[in-house]
Amino acid sequence: MGYTIQRSATFNNLCALVILFPVFFSFVFAMIGIPVPSYLAIIVIFTIIGTLLVNRLFTFSADWLKIVMALLFLWILGSISYTNSVIASKEKFISIVYNTVLPIFMIELFFLSSEKKQINLLDLEKKFLLYSYCLIWFAFFAFLLFRVRDETGRYSIPGLNNPIWFSRFIGMLMIVLLYCEKPTNKNVVLYFSSILIALFLMFAGGSRGPLLAVIITYCFIKSYLVSKKKIILILTLIVLLILIGFKFVGGYLFETNFYSLSERVNLVGLFSSLKFDYLKGNGIGSYSISFFGKDVVQYPHNVFLELFIENGIIGVLIFIVVMGIFFKKFQPNIITFLCFFYFLSSLPSGDIPGNNNLYILLYLSIYARGNTLIYYHGSRGSEPPQLLAA
């Protein structure tokens, strides 16, 4: 029993390493001048330690989400056989293999060697919560001391140099705090100061997509905990806040032209002039060479557009089935809510390798079913979180 608990705790730490810590490693590597992609180092650690956790193999647990996700990545990676890209396709293929497929394989290998086919959510959420507090304060001081500014006036930190990824990182940590923490007399100062710091960093970063994803995810979380009237009140206050921002604050965050949104919408109009196979797409990494004649890594900042251009209607339909199975079997816990956050984030930004957390969390959600945690945020001193069997 003791070994099983220790093994499960080690696995949860590895999950935290893969999901929460890439930005931290990117910053550290950038500051000390190590020219190694942070995620590559993380995956090496994950693979070595994860392999040590495998002692014997039990039966494979079949699941439709596993099967359809396997089909999705076989279709995406298999499209390298007909892509019109040479350089970008290879880079994207390698990125998907090592930052998405390999972590998913190691997760499956861990549960293949486990008698219990469930994640220890109580332990996972405790670890995610502790690390999220540490990482928010790390990001705060890194931002104050070393922030970098891009050409649009938005800010990030060394190692990322991208306000969107920085805001996503902070948004993810906010979701962990908002869902896992219950303010009490002992932690109320730390909790609210961390939330305020996270909001400051997201506003300072200036990327609207992750902030909107946090708001929607928070309302989704609260829909399981409070009445519909309170949800309507929360949404009304959010709309009023945005309107006040447009009227009195201005700036990039509240500008009204939404150039980045218009840019994505304009891509749809280009389809009529683009010659490609609507059924199977032009192949992995083909977006840039198909639209702009340059064989470089570029993407349309929308998961559906990316799949449609590179993997056709077939790729889009497989992804829709993946998300359909996820939402049909949705059970409220930190894994599924983070997955929902990353799904929303994949709609206005990022590409398939950059959205790897979405696919890793989708796979982890399989092993979180029937093991659901609902937090009742009542008055101080109210009953502790309840573990509900689905």
Task: Describe the overall structure.
The structure is a single chain. By secondary structure, the protein is an all-alpha fold. The protein has one domain (2-388). Helices cover 65% and strands 3% of the residues. It contains 15 helices and 4 strands. It has helices at 2-20, 22-32, 38-52, 64-78, 87-112, 121-146, 163-180, 188-205, 208-222, 228-249, 259-270, 287-292, 303-328, 334-345, 356-366; strands at residues 148-149, 155-156, 372-374, 386-388. The protein has a two-stranded antiparallel sheet with strand order 1-2. The chain has a two-stranded antiparallel sheet with strand order 3-4. A hairpin with a 5-residue loop joins strand 1 and strand 2 (155-156). Helix 1 runs parallel beside helix 6 (121-146), helix 2 packs across helix 3 and helix 3 (38-52) runs parallel beside helix 5 (87-112). The protein is globular, with a radius of gyration of 21 Å. The two termini are 24 Å apart. Mean pLDDT is 82; it is low at 246-254 and 372-390.
